[in-house]
Predict the 3D structure of the following.
Amino acid sequence: MIRGTAFAKVNFGLRVGSRREDGFHRVDGIFQSVGLKDRLSLAAAETDGIQTAAGAQVQEGLDNLAFRAAAAVRERAGSSQPVAVTLDKTIPFASGMGGGSADAAAALAIAARFFGLDDDTVALIAPQLGSDVAFCLRGGTARVAGRGEIVTPLDPLAGFALGIVVPPTEVATPEVFARWDEIETPAGLRISSPDLPPALRPEGELVNDLYPAAVAVVPEIDDWRQEIEARWQRPVMLSGSGPTLFGFFLDLDEAADAVSISPTGARLAEAVELSPHGWTIDD
Ligand code: C5P
């Protein structure tokens, strides 16, 4: 059995451009892996299956993106060996932190080791599974462009931690992009450079262009952002299509203090460090 860990991501800004011929939007932003984790394992079995570590069925069954990632590696490796995948989730579903993509990237890496597939072939499979999977496979800090498949690694960021709050709602990414198309000139949510940690200031202000569309789909996101900003006394940013909101802090202790005074009723409220990896193999 091979075990691994998948790390969530946040978007330090997401500029959105026109829709491409393939239906996806051009994006540009800095993506960052963070220390919020799912756990996976993969082992040879008599039949294919995907369960939690406690043995419960994973909702989508073999359609789950992590299983599809493992199956894609198996196919490219020319094997027909059935596998049992386990998936234990902490990263909230449909939250803008790329949990499904992170699981898929970790499953690619684990399955590549299991089936003996090379890194270059695995990197070709990643974007076919979802727009964020190529970033999650690379992990750490990167500039991401195209529909998400153009990933340029950047020097690791350091010197700050994040307070993360996931409001009690799920957001469907396609719905937010579709709403973005309908809004004339959407003004993104911004954090100006002086309000950013020093390591991020050279990038200029952070902008998430999807914010107005996310709020149009789920208006409560704006109420949560305003309430958290008032409590934390600093700007709060949306990750991706949301609803995850986050603020910048000096270190994990300061972020944990802030999280302890965040509004009650969130799906998740946690202080997290930046992660240099999108996944790890844990022997
Ligand atoms: O690639 P992924 O399956 O994560 O994308 C989900 C949906 O989000 C797409 O079907 C599309 O509607 C939207 N999307 C987009 N442009 C992107 C990424 C996602 O329009 N760059």
The domain at 161-272 is CATH 3.30.70.890 (Alpha-Beta Plaits). The chain has two domains: 2-155, 161-272. The first helix runs from residue 65 to 77.
